[in-house]
Amino acid sequence: MRALKVALILMCIIIILLIAAIIYLFYINRTAILPKEESEIYELKEYPYKGNSVFALIPKEEIKNDFIIFYIHGGAYVTELHDEHWQLLEDLVKDLGCIIIAPDYPLTPKYQYTDVFNMLIPLYEDIQNYIGDKELIVIGESSGGGMGLAMCQKIGEKGGEQPDKLILLSPWLDVTMENPQIQEVQKVDPVLNQYILKAAGIAYAGENGMDDYLVNPILGPLDKLENVVIFTGTKDILNPDVHVLEERAKQQGITLDIRETKDAVHVWMLNRHKKNDKVKSYMAEEAYQELVKEIER
């Protein structure tokens, strides 16, 4: 009898948590989690844009570089800008002395990919028009890496101007997660889970999105892309699809600059300030410094 009562209590707790999760994901308008304290490095400005927000990080000291970074954060399409993103952006502002623009785009499952690109593509075009001759560098991380690639593919298809550089950090290129090599990498990936990602990808795609390259940019046109650099680690289940994309590009005579790090996990360069994490700190530091050099190059 006691065991039955415990089981019923656990079942009730699970049901309550599921209901809370559904309410949170579908009915609460989630927005970026802002930094807890004002930064000494940058001034943070927020601008409304198509029902969402766009953040601009502007150095408090002299702007040392004229290029603009357009940063698209990750989080499996379901999570907001949060601490590790703000930390990376602060580090980049400090080390590069440049302006960074970061959109707080619509999140799944309340919104799908069409809502995301109805914001990202016009924003990209507005930034290009605004900055004139200044360089624009797009950085996409994880799911934001897939968004960044898809955005540039669509811009190319429309005959628009490509960014001066497109840098993808552990990009998610195919939400179907059907690459058979993923299961092998899953055995050594301490961060991501194939089935959780697949569920998020289905929600992001909506009813008709799985065949659209905006959802799965691994399928998209590559001929208009310029200066693409991809950082990827071998202990990341998203790594196998990077090589599929690389092979597609080679077959079309297109070169992608793939920076692969042995034993690195998903977006390991974001972990340089963490303690007791699952990635060696020197690997994260090296990756971050390589990223900084690549942006300045």
How does this model look, in words?
- The chain is of the alpha/beta class.
- 40% of the residues lie in helices and 16% in strands.
- The chain has helices at 2-27, 83-96, 113-131, 143-157, 182-186, 194-205, 239-251, 281-296, and strands spanning 42-49, 52-59, 68-72, 99-104, 136-141, 165-169, 228-233, 257-261.
- Strands 1-2-4-3-5-6-7-8 form an eight-stranded mixed beta sheet.
- The relative contact order is 0.12.
- Residues 9-28 have low confidence and may be disordered.
- In the predicted model, the low-confidence regions spanning at least 5 consecutive residues are 9-28
CATH topology: Rossmann fold
- Report the principal-axis shape: globular
Give the termini distance in whole angstroms. Answer: 69 Å
Output the CATH homologous superfamily.
Alpha/Beta hydrolase fold, catalytic domain
CATH architecture: 3-Layer(aba) Sandwich
What helical percentage do the residues reach?
Answer: 40-55%
Would you state the CATH class? Alpha Beta
**Number of helices, counting only DSSP H or I runs of 4 residues or more:** 8
**What's the helix-strand series?**
HEEEHEHEHEHHEHEH
> What number is the mean pLDDT?
89
Strand order of the largest sheet: 1-2-4-3-5-6-7-8
What is Rg? 20 Å
User: How would you characterize the largest beta sheet?
Assistant: 8 strands, mixed
Number of DSSP-assigned strands: 8
Tell me the β content. 15-25%
